[in-house]
Amino acid sequence: QVQLVESGGGLVQAGGSLRLLCTFSGRTFSSYAVGWFRQAPGKEREFVAAISKSGGATYYADSVKGRVTVSRDSAKTMVSLQMNSLNPSDTAFYYCAAGGSYYGLGGSGAYAYWGPGTQVTVSS
């Protein structure tokens, strides 16, 4: 059973940066793509970024492209989400998810396992 735990959330001022971490355990890390999603109060969960099993391909939502970088560390079995130039619209609960698919990584259906999430709040 795959287990995921997010960390690194918190309160940051607009224009600031945060680095979220997703710690993976329970199965072979390289067999899973990892995605990041977020959900703001009263809104649906939305895709943020994803990284393929090998780390060779990354995907970003248009709303974060150029401000966010996703990467994975096989030795530590962790995936990081570096977020820069944060603005209040980035305030949300952020989740990482893992799935065995090669395709459709921008959709929540590609992921079978989800972490409990971490709160990111950006103040203006």
Note down, in words, how this protein is organized.
The protein has 124 residues and is mainly beta. Helix content is 0%, strand content 49%. The strands form 2 sheets. Strands 2, 4, 5, 6, 9, 10 and 11 form a 7-stranded mixed β-sheet that branches. Strands 1-3-8-7 form a 4-stranded antiparallel β-sheet, with no helix packed on it. A hairpin with a 4-residue loop joins strand 7 and strand 8.
What's the helix and strand layout?
Blueprint: E1 3-7, E2 10-13, E3 18-25, E4 33-39, E5 46-51, E6 58-60, E7 68-73, E8 78-83, E9 92-99, E10 113-114, E11 118-123
Quick take:
This protein is an all-beta fold.
Shape: globular
Termini Cα gap: 40 Å
Radius of gyration: 13 Å
> Roughly how much helix do the residues carry, as a percent range?
under 10%
Structural class: mainly beta
Strand content: over 45%
Task: Count the DSSP helices.
Answer: 0
One letter per element, helices H and strands E, the order comes to EEEEEEEEEEE
What number is the mean pLDDT?
A: 96
Write out key terms for the chains shown.
single chain, 124 residues, mainly beta, seven-stranded mixed β-sheet, four-stranded antiparallel β-sheet, 0% helix
